[in-house]
Design brief:
The protein has 272 residues and is α/β, with parallel strands linked by helices. Helix content is 22%, strand content 33%. It has three domains: 6-94, Translation factors (Elongation Factor Tu (Ef-tu), domain 3, Beta Barrel), CATH 2.40.30.10; 98-209, Rossmann fold (3-Layer(aba) Sandwich); 211-272, no CATH class. Bound molecules: flavin-adenine dinucleotide (FAD) and FE2/S2 (inorganic) cluster.
């Protein structure tokens, strides 16, 4: 489904119609509004008087959409505390979204909140798709009953499924279940880098969804550049070819100030 050109998309003020607690640190905010959208695209969410940040669309229907938020810093904690009737600003959707290959044998690999952008993709892929989901613990598994597809789970603490990494399960799937034609992934960047490396080793194309600091959301301000790519406009989803050329993948990112730092510092930085 094609989205409208960016200049046609006017900012909206929408009321939260439901706040659904998904897990101790996760909630989904629903809005009764029809939005042309492709899995993997995101909207900029403005909380008046606070800030504006990017969130992927995790639920999508003809007259409704939802965003799923993990409580991290000031903004996301305020967002998951919003209640029915609260007004927020929405711009978008922005970004390219996943290039969906319907006829192929695919695997979808999610780490933590990375399940949010992948959920609507999973709902569109055929039933023989392999879904691998990793989280800190059993309590942090998002949407446990949502998909018709069986899910292979791993947790850091071993409280559910395999104790270990999603890449352990992906490697086992490739070795025991035959090759794949496409792997889609979203999660911590180190996880996506390891998925990419594994796919390169086995000659499998992949698409991953990257996060960088975003301000405008549609390619004007330069806040989100990663090497030669503008993540909000050229991405946030990048395929193997682009990832091979992306020298800052799993290495560097720009802070809000524009200063380039190591990725570990970027993800531990608190944006006040
Ligand atoms: C394309 C895209 C889609 C996203 N989708 C989701 C989603 O579906 N669910 C979800 O929970 N989170 C999503 N995020 C992350 C989200 O935008 C916030 O960064 C996150 O909620 C933390 O914000 P905070 O202010 O509460 O935390 P803070 O403590 O202020 O920041 C925590 C970390 O978030 C990152 N960050 C902060 N501000 C921004 C910003 N303006 N743009 C990008 N990254 C920032 C930085 O790495 C920072 O270290 C997405 C980010 C991007 C770029
Ligand atoms: S956020 Fe402005 S160019 Fe990407």
């Amino acid at each position: 489904m094609m989205t409208k050109p960016v200049m046609d998309q006017k900012p909206l003020m929408l009321r939260v119609t439901e706040n659904k607690r998904e897990a101790p640190d996760y909630a989904t905010l629903f809005f009764d509004h029809s939005l042309a959208f492709r899995p993997g695209q995101f909207v900029m969410v403005w909380i008046p008087g606070l800030d504006e940040k990017p969130y992927t669309i995790s639920h999508h229907g003809p007259h409704r959409f939802g965003i799923t938020i993990e409580a991290k810093g000031v903004f996301s904690r305020k967002a998951i505390a919003l209640t029915k009737g609260d007004l927020v600003g929405i711009r978008g959707p922005f970004g390219n979204g996943f290039d969906i290959q319907f006829s192929q044998r695919s695997a979808v690999v999610a780490g933590g909140c990375g399940m949010a952008p992948l959920a609507t993709l999973v709902e569109q892929l055929p039933g023989d798709t392999t879904l691998i989901h990793g989280a800190r613990s059993k309590d942090a598994i998002l949407f446990p009953d949502r998909f018709a597809l069986a899910r292979e789970i791993c947790t850091d603490d071993g409280s559910l499924g395999h104790k270990g990494l999603v890449t352990d399960l992906l490697e086992r799937r490739i070795t025991d279940g035959g090759s794949l034609d496409m792997v889609y992934a979203c999660g911590p960047e180190i996880m996506m880098y390891k998925v990419f490396q594994l796919c390169e080793t086995h000659g499998i194309p992949c698409q991953v969804s990257l996060e960088r600091y975003m301000r405008c959301g549609f390619g004007v301000c330069g806040a989100c550049v990663c090497g030669k790519q503008v993540v909000c406009k050229d991405g946030p989803v990048f395929g193997s070819e682009a990832l091979r050329e992306m020298k800052d993948f799993n290495k560097k990112a720009l802070l809000k100030s524009g200063r380039e730092v190591d990725l570990s510092l970027y993800f531990s930085w608190r944006c006040r």
